[in-house]
């Protein structure tokens, strides 16, 4: 418990809870990378932020 009470990142790196959380986060990221739009991009047809088409009647 004492190692987890330190304030520096090097002190936290040896804590079992931090090491386990790091491993869990890496595993989650690797498992879900194919569904992450920041990594795979967003198709133009499903992108809610695409520029709207302009209609003009002349």
Automatic annotation (TrEMBL):
Keywords: Cell membrane, Lipoprotein, Membrane, Transducer. PANTHER family: GUANINE NUCLEOTIDE-BINDING PROTEIN GAMMA SUBUNIT. Guanine nucleotide-binding proteins (G proteins) are involved as a modulator or transducer in various transmembrane signaling systems. The beta and gamma chains are required for the GTPase activity, for replacement of GDP by GTP, and for G protein-effector interaction. It is found in: Cell membrane. It holds the Pfam family G-gamma. One of its GO terms (molecular function) is G-protein beta-subunit binding. GO terms for cellular component: heterotrimeric G-protein complex. G proteins are composed of 3 units; alpha, beta and gamma. Residues 17-58 form the G protein gamma domain. Its main location: membrane. This is Guanine nucleotide-binding protein subunit gamma. It is a lipid-anchor. GO terms for biological process: G protein-coupled receptor signaling pathway. Coiled coil: none annotated. Gene3D superfamilies: Transducin (heterotrimeric G protein), gamma chain. Belongs to the G protein gamma family.
